[in-house]
Amino acid sequence: MAAREGGRAMEAAARTPSGPRAGRGVSRRTLLTSAVAGGGALALLAAGLRSDDRGLRGLRLMVPNTAGSGYDITARTLAEVLAETGAAPDVQVFNLPGAGGTVALARLFNEAGNGLLGLMMGLGTVGAAYADGSGQARPWLAAATPVARLVEEPEVVVVSADSPYAELSELLESWAAAPATMRVGGSSTPAGPDQLMLMRLADAVGVPRGRVDYVNYDGGELLPAIRRSEVAFAISGVGETLAQVQAGELRALAVTSGRPLPHYPAPTLRQQGLDLVFTNWRGLLAPPGVDARRREALRAAVEVARGSARWRRALERNGWTDAFATGQEFADFLRDQGERVDATLRGSGGALLG
């Protein structure tokens, strides 16, 4: 599906004029020292800014799908914390959905050298790039500048509040008996985390992958679809569903974490007899060709946000786990994730592409 819709949209994004360019950064040590001396307000000096300006000004965070998605929630939370700490006081968050995230990747590629643009991304973006039939998106992903891996998040199995399924065992029994009659929703594209998790669940209960009826809903469109019972069940993220589960609008049957989550009212798959653990992740990329000083400015700003009490509260509230990694560690992780997704796609016989 991503390949079918992607061509013209990605070409249009690649022609979009570039945004503002970042100025000259300062060393990471200086940035972090300033943060401590300023009580958490990071003084980042960029070329063209007066010496009394504080923070990384003009930073934009791009979200590759619609409002209400996991990427959107993470990007807007990060923007709020960056502003609160003074690390980046005027962050703009904007959504550029299309082709599973590869439209945003095209835009990122076109903004080469821009140290004031970041793309919130994760396993779904990697999956979309590798599933892209045009072959364009993989080089765009490979060329991007890794900034930081931020969080990990388990997936959840949820149904509508009026679903006939009150227990996971009941749902899986019905699904195994007649998988083609039960539509399953998710908000990730083919080879993204929701579908990857669903296929692993199918393997665990003996449902052939080719008989799984998976429907992708973009970003915030999934939750209304679940409430309207357009799907028999759905795979989604903890942060995207927690408020609706707590309000009684959705029923959570399982979380995919290794251990129970203190603030999420559902047992793990392992507690219910399935030896299956699955974790999604999110991170930040910058355009290709961002120089070392600008990379350090971005990384240092994110590090200050990550060390704040506000960020720690956001982790707890959204069921996220800190997974902070930068530099070569994050670059190696991205390469490993790409290889894993590629192997999954090759081994699926097309079942992941819908």
Describe the structure.
Belongs to the UPF0065 (bug) family. This is Putative tricarboxylic transport membrane protein. The chain has helices at residues 2-14, 28-37, 70-85, 102-110, 123-131, 137-143, 168-177, 193-205, 222-227, 238-246, 292-306, 309-318, 327-347, and strands at 60-63, 92-95, 117-122, 145-160, 183-186, 213-216, 233-237, 250-255, 279-286, 321-326. By secondary structure, the chain is α/β, with parallel strands linked by helices. The protein has two domains: 2-152 and 282-347, Bordetella uptake gene, domain 1 (D-Maltodextrin-Binding Protein, domain 2, 3-Layer(aba) Sandwich), CATH 3.40.190; 154-279, Periplasmic binding protein-like II (D-Maltodextrin-Binding Protein, domain 2), CATH 3.40.190.10. Helix 1 (2-14) runs parallel beside helix 4 (102-110), helix 3 packs across helix 11 and helix 4 (102-110) crosses helix 6 (137-143). The longest helix is centred in the last third of the chain and has 21 residues, at 327-347. It is globular and about 55 Å long. Mean pLDDT is 86; it is low at 1-9 and 14-53.
